[in-house]
Amino acid sequence: MVTRTYTLAPTRNILYSLIILCISAFILLLVSGCSSNTTKDADTEKIILKDDLGRKLELNGQPNRVFSLASSMTEMLYAVLDTSTIIARTPNDDYPAAVSSKPVVSNYPVDYEQILLLKPDLIFTVEGITPLDVAERLGGLGVPVYYQKYRTIEDIFIGLEEIATIMGREAQGKILADSLRKEVQSIAQKYKNVQQPQQVLAITWKDPIYVYGQNTIFTDKLKILGAENAVKEVFEQPYPALTREYILKLNPDVLIGGSKEKLENEFFGLYPELRKINAYQNNRIYDPTDNLQSRPGPRVVESLRELESFLYP
């Protein structure tokens, strides 16, 4: 949410008082309606933001120097902003290629000194990537941190529009978000009548076994593609650790997390009993592009296309 508040300079208030005394009621109304658009350099403008975590941020004016502490958010910024306003990147940022020209700022651990030297007006990040205590410390140093969170693909599109609005590029954000929405709708139309959804399990770590839980964007992607997350239970953590027994009970039709050759030793070698699952028996094991599937961002349609190729080879 973006709220702009304006405070008129004292000299302007005097001027308007004289006008009020000297002109007719009609002219008075006209001038009052137009007053906030005159001599903006004489105004002080504050922008009040409320991020997706409900945190209130106050900026002294339109931000012109920004960057992100999350690779997915860096992709969001590049999708809608004038790249000259993006002043840095984290060590893991590798898309788009133009990001490589920006200076690197450590986000694990956070390099507070370098951030202050860069003088950002605002830092963007994603829920679960940057600890709140880091954001509070940066805020105390005069650098506000704006969080976004995503549970569905639509949340990503809303996020793009919000970033664009904050940065004064509403039109660019709207055009991109609407274009992506149409592509997603087109994909969803193809699979809206699937009768027997494939049950899909996606692994994020092998020892212990961490997976994409029910309350992740991955679940929404599968729904659009006429499939389902094999993990039905909603855990406290979005990426829960599962036991071998739990996975055997799920018995997924499709396993995503690496090629069968790669997982033969790294995964099934550790847990040989999991060779009983349908995905292994039917050779439905796929190796995703990690930064495409793990980053919620403007490449979400590409990630859907990749998943589609796994589910409907």
Secondary structure: elements and pairs:
Blueprint: E1 2-7, H1 10-22, H2 25-34, E2 44-50, E3 56-59, E4 66-68, H3 71-80, H4 112-118, E5 122-126, H5 132-140, E6 145-148, H6 153-166, H7 170-190, E7 199-205, E8 209-211, H8 217-224, E9 228-229, E10 241-242, H9 244-250, E11 254-256, H10 260-266, H11 278-281, E12 285-286, H12 290-294, H13 300-311
Parallel strand pairs: 4-5, 5-6, 7-9, 7-11, 11-12
Antiparallel strand pairs: 1-2, 2-3, 7-8, 8-10
Helix pairs in contact: 3-6, 6-7
Describe this entry's structure for a reader.
- This protein starts with a strand and ends with a helix.
- Helix 5 links the parallel strand 5 (122-126) and strand 6 (145-148).
- It is of the alpha/beta class and 313 residues long.
- Helix 3 packs across helix 6 and helix 6 packs antiparallel against helix 7 (170-190).
- The radius of gyration is 25 Å and the shape is globular.
- Strands 7, 8, 9, 10, 11 and 12 form a six-stranded mixed β-sheet that branches.
- 33% of the residues are buried.
- 41% of the residues lie in helices and 15% in strands.
- The protein folds into three domains: 2-42; 60-183, Rossmann fold, CATH 3.40.50; 199-311, Rossmann fold (3-Layer(aba) Sandwich).
- The chain has helices at residues 10-22, 25-34, 71-80, 112-118, 132-140, 153-166, 170-190, 217-224, 244-250, 260-266, 278-281, 290-294, 300-311, and strands at residues 2-7, 44-50, 56-59, 66-68, 122-126, 145-148, 199-205, 209-211, 228-229, 241-242, 254-256, 285-286.
